[in-house]
Design a protein that fits this description.
With about 575 residues, the protein is of the alpha/beta class. It has 17 helices and 32 strands. The strands form seven sheets. An eight-stranded mixed sheet has the order 21-20-25-24-27-26-28-29, with helices on both faces. A seven-stranded mixed sheet has the order 3-2-7-16-17-18-19, with no helix packed on it. Helices cover about 30% and strands about 25% of the residues. It has two domains: about 250 residues, Alpha-Beta Barrel (TIM Barrel); about 190 residues, no CATH class.
């Protein structure tokens, strides 16, 4: 009790000090003078000074004095951007490097779901992400991963049940429950799914309900989820807004939904729309940015800049109950973005809690500590026999890639058969795909065919395979597939490209098979190499590895594959390769 009293006394003393600065009775730490403040609370622009003390905005107006002053000379000041839903692991780097990538683009807070590493290492993986993001200038707030594994139709490296969820609930940076992907379980009232939701009653619960409409949507919303980031059409987004969900517009590396969904945004529902990046890889983060790129795109499409900025700042904070940020007002964190133009949005300075953390596209330095990651698991020894598909009919199910989307089509086609076995047919862009279970050493392999990756020779492989993150391989021949898979396994996880017996390029990802501890610039360079190698083999996709990774996610329609085989997501059941 004494410790709690001490904390309360310190907080009271800090408040008294800030109140004195707010009244003007003592100098503030920092004054921003002559800036045009974007007020997302009222939808107007104020020319007003900002007083900051101990990292918090204490006042706006004339007459404040400060120990330090920053002259803005008419430049705009916006609240720091908030990414409403992101998987840091998809950046392929650990939280400190992710922070170094997104801070120069104006993102000062992210709401992260660490379910990628949780599917590999369970609760230890989530604790690693919490520890690795502690003390960063980027505020990393966590949603407790709700579906590990995503469904019983895949084999993850760990399971997170209600007891683990309840442990996480008490961490000060855990906001609520992350995306509840088992939407059939929610709708049908499965006890364990509902128990996880109940553990976070009264707190934010993120949804994940692609294509769910009508009575099923009513049931899903009734159960507790309050948001959705999986809409692909304006009609779907509108229905979910009408039923009470906050809709997160997404622009990821492999899921471009922002412009498709913009027609659903109206003056009446604007306050319940936020922005998220979900899964974004190094080149896109460094070259295009994240939330800032989305704001630019919205403004270029004709949306009022103040509306676009509100969707990137205040709206996600209102949704998650973050009353300490998201606007420029007394009592809010001094998370600020300085720019000279609201349309082209060049990010000139970024401040987090009253400290300048980035200038003109470069992050400032800060003391860093290394947090040891969990022990990696790679219990798989690929050989050519693993990819053999005996011919058992003349019609097969085929996963149809939809470029720039994570949904797929459920196709049927006639397989090419040679010596009694199904083989790839690159002339028809009909390739083999395999998912090898790597966590438990079961030797289980799911086999199928895919159309839309575009390889004319060789194979690509990776341990980034949402959400179970087994070893996924797409290729033209069994030898190339085995070579690529072995190369990735030998790395302890990562991405690889092979042709025949030759390895063409690799990217090591030894943290869970998902992330590298190298700099994001180094990872971007190596990712460029593997993508280039895949393109020399014929793939024309923007990022064939991310496209391949989402072919393994059995909660996104329509046809996917796991180590247990093909999954008809619309029917939510496993199906055979041969029809």
């Amino acid at each position: 009790m004494a410790d709690r009293d001490d904390v309360g006394e310190i907080a009271t003393m800090a408040l008294v000090d800030r109140l004195a600065a707010a009244r003007g009775d003592r100098p503030a730490d920092l004054i921003f003078r002559g800036g045009r403040v974007v007020n997302v609370l009222t939808g107007e622009i104020e020319t007003v000074d900002i007083a900051v003390h101990e990292g918090v905005i204490v006042g706006l107006g004339a007459g404040y004095e400060g120990a330090r002053e920053v002259e803005l000379s008419g430049r705009y000041v916006l609240p720091g951007f908030v990414d409403a839903h992101v998987h840091i692991e998809s950046s392929l780097v650990t939280p400190p490097e992710f922070a170094r990538a997104v801070l120069p683009h104006g993102t000062t807070t992210v709401v992260a779901d660490p379910h990628e590493i949780a599917n590999v290492h369970g609760i230890d993986g989530i604790r690693y992400m919490l520890d690795a993001s502690e003390g960063l200038p980027l505020s990393v707030l966590i949603m407790a991963s709700s579906c590990v594994p995503a469904t019983p139709m895949s084999t993850a490296g760990a399971e997170i049940g209600v007891s683990e969820i309840e442990q996480l609930a008490h961490h000060p940076r855990v906001l609520g429950l992350a995306e509840v992907m088992n939407f059939p379980g929610v709708v049908q009232g499965q006890p364990e799914v509902l128990a996880k939701i109940a553990a976070f009653e009264g707190r934010p619960i993120d949804g994940h309900a692609p294509g769910v409409t009508g009575h099923a949507l009513n049931a899903y919303v009734l159960a507790g989820p309050g948001s959705d980031h999986e809409c692909t059409t304006p009609e779907e987004a509108t229905e979910k807004l009408r039923r009470g969900l906050t809709v997160f517009l997404r622009e990821a590396t492999n899921a471009h939904n922002l412009m498709d969904l913009l027609p659903a945004v109206t003056p009446g529902n604007l306050g319940r729309v936020a922005l998220c990046t979900d899964d974004r890889q190094p080149a896109d983060l460094l070259d295009e940015g994240g939330i800032d790129a989305m704001v630019r795109a919205l403004v270029a499409s004709g949306l009022d800049p103040l509306h676009a900025i509100r969707m990137a700042t205040l709206n996600p904070c209102v949704h998650f109950g973050l009353r300490d940020r998201g606007a420029i007002a007394p009592g809010r964190r001094a998370d600020l973005v300085v720019t000279k133009d609201l349309e082209t949005l060049p990010i000139e300075e970024v401040w987090a809690a009253g400290r300048c953390v980035a200038r003109h596209g470069a992050a400032e330095t800060w003391p860093q500590r290394r947090v040891p990651p969990p022990t990696p698991a790679m219990r798989v020894t690929p050989d050519e026999a693993a990819f053999h598909i005996p011919a058992k009919g003349d019609r097969v199910r085929v996963i149809g890639v939809v470029e720039n989307q994570i949904v797929t089509r459920a196709l049927e086609d006639e397989p090419m058969v040679r010596d009694g076995a199904v083989v790839a047919d690159p002339e028809r862009d009909l390739l083999k795909i395999a998912v090898l279970e790597r966590h438990r050493g079961s030797g289980r392999v799911g086999l199928g065919l895919v159309k839309g990756i575009g390889l004319l020779a060789g194979a690509i492989a990776g341990t980034v395979a949402h959400d179970h993150h087994n070893l996924v391989v797409v290729g033209v021949d069994d030898r190339s597939m085995a070579t690529a898979a072995r190369a990735v396994a030998d790395l302890g996880g990562g991405l690889g490209v092979a042709r025949g017996g030759a390895v063409l390029a690799t990217l090591p990802l030894r943290v869970g098979g998902l992330m590298s501890e190298a700099t994001i610039e180094k990872v971007r360079e190596e990712l460029d190499d593997v993508v280039h190698a895949a393109r020399t083999l014929g793939s024309g996709l923007h990022d064939p590895f991310m496209a391949m990774a989402f072919l393994a996610l059995e909660v996104i329609p329509s046809l996917k594959i796991t180590d247990q085989g093909l999954v008809d997501v619309d029917a939510f059941k496993r199906v055979t390769l041969f029809t």
